[in-house]
Specification:
- By secondary structure, the protein is mainly α.
- The protein is built from five helices and two strands, in the order H-H-E-H-E-H-H.
- It is globular, with a radius of gyration of 19 Å.
- The chain starts with a helix and ends with a helix.
């Protein structure tokens, strides 16, 4: 009886919390593609053994490209460091989304071998290496230096900030690669600019 009650509560919480995260069937599901398709979904990003970097068990070859990053005379945030060769979460995203590394360039291939998928084609998700017209990433979120930012403690109730100080804005602060219920993989809906105003006082 206790097990049934626990299960009912768990299901209720999952439903109340919104859509269950699922990669299968989204644009991040590369299974079934390429010249040597695999039915594995997670392998294009993750591996249980020999990952590089080890967190988050990363399986995709990282890019070595240099990036033109966003700059503005009105931006008060400071950079964590250059994106090129960096260790921020955004480097993981750019390993596919800068369009320079084959989507199936993996540390550990699935049992069927290299799926044979080339670089990301000319789609909106291919950001290239010129990020000067994209929202800045790999920066410190600090409302003390920018009065137009919401308090970090409040932001953390909705978004993830990364790094040892939980203060780095990365791609995954606004995008959840495992859940496309708010296309394009947004962590919350941006209706009424809700995602933007999570951080920006406007």
């Amino acid at each position: 009886m206790r097990k049934r009650i626990f299960t009912a509560v768990a299901v209720t919480l999952l439903v109340a919390g919104g859509a269950v995260a699922q990669v299968s069937g989204t644009a991040h599901d590369l299974s079934g593609q390429g010249t040597n398709p695999t039915n594995e979904v997670c392998v294009f990003c993750h591996t249980p053994h020999g990952a590089s970097p080890s967190v988050p068990l990363w399986n995709h070859t990282l890019s070595t490209q240099a990036y033109t990053e966003y700059t503005s005379p009105t931006m008060d945030s400071t950079s964590v460091g250059p994106l090129q060769g960096g260790t921020g979460v955004s480097n993981l995203c750019l390993s596919c989304h800068d369009g320079s590394v084959a989507l199936s360039s993996l540390v550990n291939n699935p049992p069927t071998g290299d799926p044979g998928i080339g670089v990301m084609g000319a789609v909106n998700a291919n950001l290239g290496t010129d990020l000067s017209n994209d929202h800045p990433v790999n920066i410190i979120y600090d409302e003390a230096v920018d009065a137009e930012l919401v308090a970090r403690a409040t932001v953390l109730l909705t978004l993830d900030l990364f790094g040892a100080g939980a203060n780095e804005l990365q791609c995954a602060s606004c995008h959840d690669p495992h859940n496309d219920s708010n296309n394009p993989f947004l962590v919350i809906s941006n209706a009424g600019s809700a995602l933007c105003t999570t951080c920006h006082i406007k």
